[in-house]
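Researcher: Go.
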Amino acid sequence: MRILVFSDSHGRGSRIEAAILEHPEAKHVFFLGDKLSDIEDIEHLYPDHSFYSVAGNCDSIFSKNPYKTVILAGKKILYTHGHTFSVKSGTERLIAYAKGIGADIVLYGHTHIPETTYDDGLYIINPGSVGRGMRFDSFAAVDIESSGIMPSIIRI
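Model: Structure:
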């Protein structure tokens, strides 16, 4: 199973749509905030996909719950924009929380810096920004198979 992970589109939703079209095998799409309307404009175009979203610090609608969890393919996924965990100062708080709830994967954005790391049973993935309009824009794909979890950063 492949999931796609986007964050910080900042008005460039067309990049999300292009990535979904390029990865038809991915039926689960995560959006980690900062321009929720970008993903909301796309969701109705793909009724056979599942969309999971949280608000970011630049969204006018702040979620009462700035992070959520879902279980896909038997793996617990924590997803958040990251600002409430102060990820620009480090991911220690986020990682501690994720481990405390038994997450297998944590997805976060906010820093605009793509990253995939592994820490004692936890995959930590930041897709970077899909919408800065720069040559380093990116998103993430995460393959979850019986043989394991394989995250990758895809540059646009």
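Model: Residues 13-22 form the longest helix (10 residues).
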